[in-house]
C-alpha cells in the first residue's frame, strides 16, 4: 500500500457529483486507447426511497451528452484527470431483492460522441492533412498536438472532400499515415488535447514497471507475445497522375527508432517484402509516405499485456507514452509503448491493465531503470 492517501473525484456538468449518487457509486471502469474513443462506466448500487423510486434515479442528472470528468490521486497528492467524457448510455438492472438493483452509466470522449454526431460534406482545398486535423480539433475547442505532414494535394490535381463524420475522417487520416489518434486530457489542467502524431517512443519514460522484484514489484502479471513473421517491408508502384510515368515507392525498414537491441524486421532472413496496391494515394509522395508507414506498423510485432498495482505505482499509466519494464528477462525487458490502459477504481482498490508494443527485442544497455516517483509508494 502507498504511504499517502488515494482518492478519486467525479464531476457531472462541471460540478461535483451530488452526495446521494456518490454514496451509491461502487466502481468506475475507464478504458483509454490509441486508435479509438476512450470510454468510462459508472457502476451504482440502487436502493428505494420513501416514494418507491430508485434513489440514484430520482434526480435526472445523467442526461444525453452531459459532460463528466473523472480524476484520481493515487499515492501522490496531486489529482490527475483520467478522462473528459459525455454520457451516451444508461443501463438499469432491477432486482427483486434489496441491494440487487444496479445502474451502469456509460460515456465516451469527444471522438465517440461530439465528433461522431454530425455528418456534413465539406471541402478542404490546398490544405495538408495535419492542417485539416488541427481545424477539426479546433471546432470542438480541443488543443491539437499534431505532426506536420507535407501538403501533397492542391486544387490543380485533386481536392480533399470530407463526406463522413469528423471522427471517422480523422481515423482515416491516422490509418493512412500510421499515426496515433486519441484524445487525452492534460493531467493537471484537465483540458482535452487531440493527438495525431507518430508514436512518442523517443521521450522520457513515464515510469518503471517491475515484476518479481520483491517490495519494488508493481506488476502483478505480465505476458509477452512476439509475432516473429509479421514484420515486412513494402514495395509499391503507381502511375504519376501528372507525367503518366510509373513511380515506385519503398518502405524496407521501420522509420521509427528501435526500442531494443535487435529490430524485429532485421531478424527475418531474407527480409520479407509485400507489394502495396490500392492504398488511396493521390500522388507519388503520398504513396512513398504510406509505404514507409506500413513497414513501421508491421514492425511492432512484440505485444505485451500486464496488470499494475495502481497504488504502488502511485499514478495512472497514460497511453501514448513509453514505459520501462524490468524482470521479464533480457530479451523481453526494456522499453515499451503503451497503447491501451484500463482503470478499475473502487473504494478500496485501484488496478490498471495495459497493452503495449515494441519494435525490437533485447536490452540496448542504455536503459536507466530509475523511477523518481517510486519513493512515495
For the structure shown, list the relevant keywords.
mainly beta, 3 domains, globular, 377 residues, 3-stranded mixed β-sheet, 13% helix, single chain, 23 strands, Phage tail proteins - horseshoe like beta roll fold, Elongation Factor Tu (Ef-tu), domain 3, 13-stranded mixed β-sheet
Task: Give the helix/strand layout.
Layout (H helix, E strand, L loop, with lengths): L6 E6 L2 E2 L2 H6 E9 L5 E8 L20 E7 L6 E14 L7 E8 L13 E3 L4 H11 L3 E4 L13 E3 L3 H12 L2 E6 L6 E6 L10 E3 L8 E8 L6 E7 L6 E6 L10 E2 L9 E4 L7 H15 L3 E8 H4 L8 E5 L7 E13 L3 E9 L1 E2 L16
Parallel strand pairs: 9-12, 13-20, 15-18
Antiparallel strand pairs: 1-2, 1-5, 3-4, 3-21, 4-7, 5-6, 6-7, 8-10, 11-12, 14-19, 15-16, 17-23, 19-22, 20-21, 21-22
Structure, described:
- With 377 residues, the protein is mainly β.
- The protein folds into 3 domains: 7-114, Baseplate protein-like domain - beta roll fold (Phage tail proteins - horseshoe like beta roll fold, Roll); 208-227 and 301-376, Beta Barrel (Elongation Factor Tu (Ef-tu), domain 3); 233-298, no CATH class.
- It has 5 helices and 23 strands.
- The strands form 5 sheets. Strands 1, 2, 3, 4, 5, 6, 7, 13, 14, 19, 20, 21 and 22 form a 13-stranded mixed beta sheet that branches.
- The mean pLDDT is 88.
Amino acid at each position: 500500500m502507498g504511504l499517502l492517501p488515494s482518492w478519486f473525484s467525479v464531476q457531472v456538468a462541471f460540478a461535483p457529483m451530488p452526495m446521494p449518487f456518490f454514496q451509491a457509486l461502487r466502481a468506475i471502469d475507464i478504458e483509454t486507447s490509441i486508435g479509438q474513443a476512450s470510454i468510462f462506466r459508472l457502476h451504482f448500487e440502487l436502493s428505494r426511497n420513501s416514494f418507491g423510486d430508485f434513489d440514484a434515479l430520482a434526480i435526472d442528472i445523467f442526461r444525453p451528452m452531459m459532460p463528466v470528468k473523472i480524476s484520481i490521486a493515487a499515492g501522490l497528492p496531486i489529482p490527475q484527470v483520467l478522462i473528459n467524457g459525455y454520457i451516451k448510455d444508461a443501463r438499469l438492472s432491477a432486482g427483486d431483492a434489496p441491494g440487487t438493483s444496479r445502474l451502469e452509466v456509460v460515456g465516451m470522449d469527444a471522438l465517440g460522441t461530439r465528433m461522431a454526431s454530425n455528418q456534413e460534406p465539406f471541402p478542404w482545398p490546398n490544405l495538408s492533412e495535419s492542417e485539416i486535423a488541427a481545424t477539426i480539433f479546433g471546432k470542438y475547442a480541443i488543443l491539437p498536438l499534431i505532426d506536420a505532414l507535407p501538403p501533397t494535394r492542391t486544387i490543380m490535381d485533386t481536392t480533399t472532400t470530407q463526406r463522413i463524420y469528423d471522427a471517422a475522417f480523422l481515423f482515416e487520416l491516422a490509418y493512412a499515415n500510421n499515426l496515433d489518434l486519441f484524445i487525452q486530457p492534460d493531467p493537471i489542467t484537465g483540458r482535452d488535447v487531440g493527438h495525431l502524431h507518430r508514436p512518442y517512443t523517443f521521450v522520457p519514460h513515464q515510469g518503471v514497471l517491475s515484476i518479481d522484484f520483491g517490495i519494488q514489484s508493481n506488476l502483478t502479471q505480465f505476458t509477452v507475445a512476439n509475432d516473429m513473421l509479421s514484420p515486412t517491408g513494402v514495395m509499391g508502384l503507381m502511375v504519376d497522375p501528372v507525367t503518366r510515368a510509373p513511380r515506385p515507392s519503398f518502405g524496407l525498414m521501420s522509420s521509427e527508432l528501435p526500442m531494443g537491441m535487435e529490430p524485429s524486421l532485421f531478424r527475418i532472413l531474407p527480409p520479407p517484402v509485400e507489394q502495396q496496391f490500392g492504398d488511396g494515394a493521390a500522388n507519388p509522395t503520398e504513396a512513398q509516405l504510406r509505404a514507409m508507414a506500413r513497414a513501421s506498423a508491421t514492425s511492432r510485432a512484440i505485444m505485451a499485456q500486464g496488470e499494475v498495482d495502481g497504488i504502488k505505482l502511485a499514478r495512472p499509466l497514460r497511453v501514448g507514452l513509453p514505459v520501462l519494464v524490468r524482470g521479464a528477462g533480457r530479451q523481453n525487458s526494456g522499453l515499451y509503448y503503451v497503447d491501451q490502459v484500463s482503470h478499475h477504481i473502487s473504494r478500496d482498490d485501484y488496478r490498471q491493465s495495459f497493452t503495449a508494443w515494441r519494435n525490437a527485442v533485447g536490452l540496448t544497455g542504455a536503459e536507466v531503470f530509475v523511477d523518481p516517483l517510486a519513493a512515495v509508494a
